């Protein structure tokens, strides 16, 4: 069977047989390394630098009903950049002919926003896991006896930089950290 790459689209593709919507399609025309592409992505391993590839839209609804489950879909590629996905060859050809600098600027802008969003999410998760690691190290270390600062002040200072109590008292703090960061991802994407 092999591995597929996945192409995600913003506007859903509509199955011509049953009307079901699909927000992605799979292809083996690129590197087949389970990569995910969106409009504006640079395609790796594509044999086509500029042109139109014919793919099939597999419909799970039709497949479950025992009907033919695939229809033609046209992948538009411009200088190794995924420029569009159309269900009509004429529209695919028109899309290929209409690509201009504004498209490139829009794709670059979206790629930069996605990279910044990913960095923000990664750093937030990394920071929380690092704070959990520091919390475990402090819990395992004995409390210093001789210090100029009162113990209560040191604990209050640590609480300011520590993880929320909800995470620290959770049955599985790492799962709580992941859930908190997943929730933050959803809010940031809105």
Describe this structure in words.
- The chain has helices at 60-64, 89-97, 101-140, 151-161, 165-168, 173-189, and strands at residues 5-14, 21-27, 36-37, 51-58, 70-78, 81-86.
- By secondary structure, it is α+β, with helices and mostly antiparallel strands.
- It folds into 2 domains: 5-99, no CATH class; 104-189.
- A hairpin with a 6-residue loop joins strand 1 (5-14) and strand 2 (21-27).
- The longest helix is centred in the middle third of the chain and has 40 residues, at 101-140.
- The protein is elongated, with a radius of gyration of 25 Å.
- The model has no long low-confidence stretch (mean pLDDT 82).
What is the element layout, followed by pairings?
Elements lengths: L4 E10 L6 E7 L8 E2 L13 E8 L1 H5 L5 E9 L2 E6 L2 H9 L3 H40 L10 H11 L3 H4 L4 H17 L1
Parallel strand pairs: 1-3
Antiparallel strand pairs: 1-2, 4-5, 5-6
Helix pairs in contact: 3-6
